[in-house]
Design a protein that fits this description.
Its cofactor is Ca(2+). The chain has 498 residues and is an alpha/beta fold. 30% of the residues lie in helices and 14% in strands. The chain has a single domain, classed as 3-Layer(aba) Sandwich (Alkaline Phosphatase, subunit A), CATH 3.40.720. A hairpin with a 3-residue loop joins strand 14 (418-421) and strand 15 (425-429).
């Protein structure tokens, strides 16, 4: 009887274990051999980095060093030139044109009654479902992350402070109608006194402390930096790295926008932001660039601190690193200081991967999409592909195993507004049928719209083929009230989809 009793207990425990196991989760032995992930997001970081050719005496030694130990994409583009929809796209693996998330959306509403996203598995969740311990701090989704996405959360960063008692230069309204446009946090100056008061420094501290711990599972660590998002405030020592006499202003042509369609001008109507003409007349252009470069150098230093901690940890030789930004940032190009456009300096952003099984110091010039981060990380970590991903893994390209026949990247800004970037050309199509076309070989600053030039008829037709045919209506919970054009477009193109 005693033996039968013991056998019954054993069978009960076995059945209980079977009922509570996660079918997607690997065995402990499988999980233990998989690499960790360090997932670094930098807000509003454009391509003015040393490893991407540098500009205006930029100083980014730590990002440059990280690029040298992995694969750098010199022609990577966001799916939307705005924080909220760009990050929602990366974390869901879906295009804005598929989800209708064209504007800002609360983190907890990304997965809502929207048929495209209501049962989507977010990138960090996919890792957790496959045996990873997930951690995250800072700006990863638009604010931080939906509730429960991370096993350990350092929380969202509230605001972009610390802030001085009064603004230094820019009042946040500019020449705008305050009731229509709202107030930008754009301003620039040296503040606060020390790095330790900056949220990004505190986020790096949080990650550094956790890199010193022991884990029984592989980990996914998300780290979201705020700077160089406005306001462009960091301590004085970072400004000192960038003396004004060494700064070169961005390429600018006063009549640049004379040949673009009306919708392009409506989207670029940003009077709450400093205009380039104002920056020239006021003498502030170099000061704005200096502040931006100071913020970039500050974040670069925080990345260096984290990388030093990783290199001194038990995980130095078994961690996949990805560094990305949600979009670029214009520093006077096309008439303003903002992202918010389908032109090159707004869509182009840094993307790099470093991993034990990747080449070192490789630069890839083919256009790629931030949408590819999700599937690429899965393949790098030996996880099964997620069938809902609309992006393609970049691992074969990084290893030199395949080359895309017609590489391209799609950026979407509002419904039916798309930019297509190939290796040489950019084609932009707007909702009213207006279009732009640029030849980067002859016109790297996109100053001359060649859409009516018959010499490019074939190239234009080829890029038109990549314009998304699915253009979902605006997600009811997504909005961009900062810009009247998008308020009007959402009102015209309400819920549902097509």
């Amino acid at each position: 009887m005693k033996d039968l009793y013991i056998l019954a207990i054993a069978l009960s425990l076995l059945l209980l274990s079977a009922c509570t196991s996660n079918d997607k989760a690997p065995s402990n032995s499988q999980a233990a051999t998989r690499p960790n992930v360090l997932f670094i997001a930098v807000d509003d970081l454009n391509t003015w980095l040393g490893c991407l050719g540098g500009f205006s005496n930029t100083k980014t030694p730590n990002i440059d060093s990280l690029a040298a130990r992995g694969v750098l994409f010199s022609n990577a583009h966001c799916q939307a030139p705005l924080c909220g929809p760009s990050r929602a796209s990366i974390m869901t693996g879906l295009r804005p044109s598929t989800t209708g998330i064209y504007g800002m959306i609360p983190d907890n509403e990304v997965r809502s009654e929207n048929p495209a996203t209501r049962d989507i598995v977010f990138l960090p969740e996919y890792f957790r479902n496959n045996g990873y311990h997930t951690m995250g701090i800072g700006k990863l989704f638009h604010q931080h992350a939906p509730n429960g996405v991370f096993d350990e959360s350092g929380g969202r960063v509230k605001g972009f402070g610390p802030l001085p008692e009064e603004r230094f230069v820019w009042d946040g309204f500019g020449n705008s109608d305050r009731a229509i446009y709202g107030r930008t946090s754009t301003d620039w100056g040296a503040f606060p006194a020390v790095d330790s008061l900056m949220p990004d420094h505190q986020s790096a501290d949080w990650v550094i402390e956790r890199l010193a711990r022991n884990y029984e599972q592989p980990f996914f660590m998300g780290l979201g930096f705020l700077r160089p998002h406005v306001p462009l405030y960091v301590p004085q020592k970072w400004f000192d790295l960038h003396p004004l006499e060494g700064i070169t202003v961005a390429p600018y042509q006063a009549d640049d926008l004379d040949d673009v369609p009306p919708v392009a001008l409506q989207i670029n109507d940003l009077p709450m932001m400093p205009s380039t003409e104002w920056a020239i007349a006021s003498g502030e252009w170099k000061n704005i660039i200096q502040a931006y470069l100071a913020c970039v150098s500050f974040v670069d230093h925080q990345i260096g601190r984290v990388m030093e901690a990783l290199d001194n940890s038990a995980y130095a030789d078994n961690t996949v690193i990805v560094l990305w930004s949600d979009h670029g940032y214009r520093l006077g190009e096309k008439g303003t200081f903002a992202k918010h456009a389908l032109w090159e300096p707004a869509t182009k952003a840094p993307l790099l991967f470093a991993a034990p099984n990747l080449p070192r110091g490789k630069v890839i010039d083919s256009p790629v999409e931030m949408l590819s981060i999700y599937p690429t990380l899965l393949e790098l970590c030996g996880l099964p592909a997620y069938e809902r991903n609309e992006g393609k893994s970049l691992l074969p390209l990084m290893r030199g195993e395949s080359e895309p026949e017609n590489p391209y990247a799609i950026t979407t800004f509002g419904r039916h507004n798309h930019g297509i970037r190939s290796e040489r050309f950019r084609y932009i199509q707007y909702e009213d049928g207006g279009a732009e076309f640029y030849d980067h070989r002859n016109d790297p600053h996109e100053w001359t719209n060649q859409i009516a030039n018959p010499d490019y008829r074939q190239e234009i037709a080829q890029l038109k083929e990549f314009v998304p045919t699915i253009n979902a209506n605006w997600d009811s919970l997504s909005a961009y009230t900062f810009q009247p054009y998008f308020v009007a477009q959402k009102a015209r193109m309400g819920g549902g989809g097509e």
